[in-house]
Amino acid sequence: MNSKSTGTLPGVRPRIAVVGSINMDLVFRTPRMPTVGETITGRHFFQTPGGKGANQAVACARQGATVDFVGAVGADLFGQQALAGLAAEGIGTGHIVSSDAAASGVAGIFVADDGANSIVIAPGANDLLSVAQVDAASPAIAAAAFLVCQLESPLDSVRRAIAIARAHGVGVVFNPAPARDLDDALLSQVDYLVVNETEAAQLSGIAVDDPESAVRAAGALRARGAAVVLLTMGDQGVLVSSPDYTRFIPAVQVDAVDTTAAGDTFVGSLTVGLARGHDLGAAVAEAQYAAALTVTRIGAQSAIPTRDEVIHLMTQRRGSP
């Protein structure tokens, strides 16, 4: 497995590089999802910073990491607000380009009373993230314990970031969302592949609808080259498929009000746990607690918990973490 990280010293913040998207989320609370052609009255509306890359960066920062971000925003109000929000979290923004060639990315999010959500994304400036920009950020990537990537940015740029990480012994955590077809050459460079049922099905060709099919899909993804596969299945838990074992780690049961950013919180917490030197099972379990706290709150980044909050919930539920 490719990682120069063997755990950080007590009191030292692990370094994480995130290459990915930055959006402004426009959130509509609704009694239920509208059907095609239907207009319904929502309960309320608000906007909050989002984007899978930015969400995962915030999750890493709130779990105690030093984070450098590589991305792009528009030279508009949403872009200014996003940059200010990331900086307020202590996230390095020196490798984020502000461009007047496109508007900042926007996501329209419908959240129903049962916590389910549907999302439409207009990528905007996220599509401007270039290979050259990633190359310019190579010192930040090389200095990290782990690189985190998703697929709300151009694939060529993601591929280049992963190549830089591999060349410098940096661990790669890859969340291939939104789902799209990927080649084995890319998957073989991934240390930790984090997918949900939909993404796992598209990449493996195996429909995931129960634990048995999840095991088969994860096995197929490992056969394609991913070193470790983590298949998240909502309130059913997470399937961990590694060279050493395949097992389910149960979800933390809570009353969900909004599932937005739960997966991003899981990715960020998992990465920081691994960078601290936690074994895989412990890192996954802690990430499950972080994700559980997220779904009890409304919004994306506004819902992501701090490390102290995660430790408190873990202590409440099972004693000393």
UniProtKB/TrEMBL annotation:
Keywords: ATP-binding, Carbohydrate metabolism, Cytoplasm, Kinase, Magnesium, Metal-binding, Nucleotide-binding, Potassium, Transferase. Substrate binds at residues 23-25, 51-55, 152, 264. It is found in: Cytoplasm. The active site is at residue 264. Its cofactor is Mg(2+). GO terms for molecular function: ribokinase activity. It catalyses: D-ribose + ATP = D-ribose 5-phosphate + ADP + H(+). Its main location: cytoplasm. Requires a divalent cation, most likely magnesium in vivo, as an electrophilic catalyst to aid phosphoryl group transfer. It is the chelate of the metal and the nucleotide that is the actual substrate. ATP binds at residues 196, 232-237, 263-264. It is an enzyme of class 2 (transferase). K(+) binds at residues 258, 260, 294, 297, 299. Gene3D superfamilies: 3.40.1190.20. Pathway: Carbohydrate metabolism; D-ribose degradation; D-ribose 5-phosphate from beta-D-ribopyranose: step 2/2. Its EC number is 2.7.1.15. SUPFAM superfamilies: Ribokinase-like. Residues 15-307 form the Carbohydrate kinase PfkB domain. It comes from the Bacteria. Belongs to the carbohydrate kinase pfkB family. NCBIfam families: D_ribokin_bact. Homodimer. Catalyzes the phosphorylation of ribose at O-5 in a reaction requiring ATP and magnesium. The resulting D-ribose-5-phosphate can then be used either for sythesis of nucleotides, histidine, and tryptophan, or as a component of the pentose phosphate pathway. This is Ribokinase. The lineage of its organism: Bacteria, Pseudomonadati, Pseudomonadota, Betaproteobacteria, Burkholderiales. The gene is rbsK.
